[in-house]
From TrEMBL:
Gene3D superfamilies: Luciferase-like domain (3.20.20.30). This is LLM class F420-dependent oxidoreductase. It comes from Nocardia terpenica. PANTHER family: ALKANESULFONATE MONOOXYGENASE, ALKANESULFONATE MONOOXYGENASE-RELATED. Signal peptide: none annotated. NCBIfam families: F420_Rv1855c.
Length: 287
């Protein structure tokens, strides 16, 4: 099974304005990008991991922005890279995501992770468990969400962290059987097993490097064999920050390593200029 090369653009909703975000989405949609992304943070991503942050920076809510993006665009698929599972009960998140899927007429890509920002959990007294427990919670959350998205009218689930009792979820997602699930992470013992069990797309960031990405992709293949999954069903994705004038130099090694879903992180200082420069290269990048 081969997958087409798809290229997305991500402008994080921090240190920017709603007007700038709208202009970015519209231009990216008109320019032929395959997917568009925001993030899910309650405080600036650069400060979220520390106990005492630097002065606050403006940050907009990712899922509210996705609902707006659904109305501002017509072609590109859209998603949150990635949703923090620790911020919401998965039943509530399933309802939010379903609504965005309908608003976009089935263009949602459902990206989710464990959650990690220390400060943004501390400031609202949200629990932030050790990594192993967070992965266990994410596993249960995905089971809850996919159960609610299934054709079943009532869903019941009793895990260690989440419970459903004859829960209804109507309407079901616009996409059938459900929106694609994106999971990120590099943990070889637990996270990649979770990817093998649940994900349609596996995502990593470019600091791992394409050689390490290829090695981890092989680990994912072995987990797929263990859980009885065809590894070719899972698309490989990387998020990277390229030189806008030389995008091919950044993404070619990843394409050669089998990664076909490319998300380009665009800096907020001149996003439209950078986006235009990258857009001119899209046909060559996909060939």
């Amino acid at each position: 099974m081969s997958h087409p090369i798809r290229i997305g653009a991500k402008l994080v909703p921090q240190g920017t304005s709603i007007a700038a975000l709208r202009a970015f989405w519209r231009l990216a949609d008109e320019s032929g990008f395959d997917h568009l992304w925001v993030y899910d943070h309650l405080a600036g991503a650069g400060n979220a991991a520390i106990a005492t942050p630097e002065p606050a920076i403006d940050v907009f809510d990712g899922w509210t922005l996705l609902a707006t993006m659904a109305s501002e665009t017509r072609h590109a698929r859209l998603g949150c890279m990635v949703t923090a599972n620790s911020f919401r009960h998965p039943g509530i998140l399933a309802k939010i995501a379903t609504t965005v899927d309908h608003l976009s007429h089935g263009r949602l890509e459902f990206g989710i992770g464990t959650g990690w920002g220390e400060y943004e959990h501390t400031m609202f007294a949200l629990p932030l468990e050790p990594p192993r427990e967070r992965i266990e919670k994410l596993d249960e959350a995905l089971r809850v969400i996919t159960a609610l998205w299934s054709p079943e009218v009532y869903s019941t689930f009793h895990g260690n962290h989440y419970h459903l009792t004859a829960a209804v979820h109507s309407p079901k997602p616009f996409q059938q059987p459900r929106p694609p699930i994106w999971l990120g992470g590099t943990g070889e013992k637990r996270m990649l097993k979770l990817v093998a069990e649940h994900a349609d797309v596996w995502n990593i960031v470019d600091k791992a490097g394409p050689q390490e990405g290829a090695r981890l992709s092989g680990v994912l293949d072995r987990w797929c064999a263990d859980v009885g999954r065809d590894p070719h069903q899972i698309r490989r994705s990387v998020q990277l920050k390229p030189d806008p004038k030389r995008v091919a130099a950044s993404i070619t090694p990843w394409l050669e390593s089998g990664f076909t879903e490319i998300i380009l992180f665009i800096a907020p200082d001149q996003p439209l200029t950078d986006l235009e420069q990258i857009a001119e290269q899209l046909p060559a990048l996909r060939s």
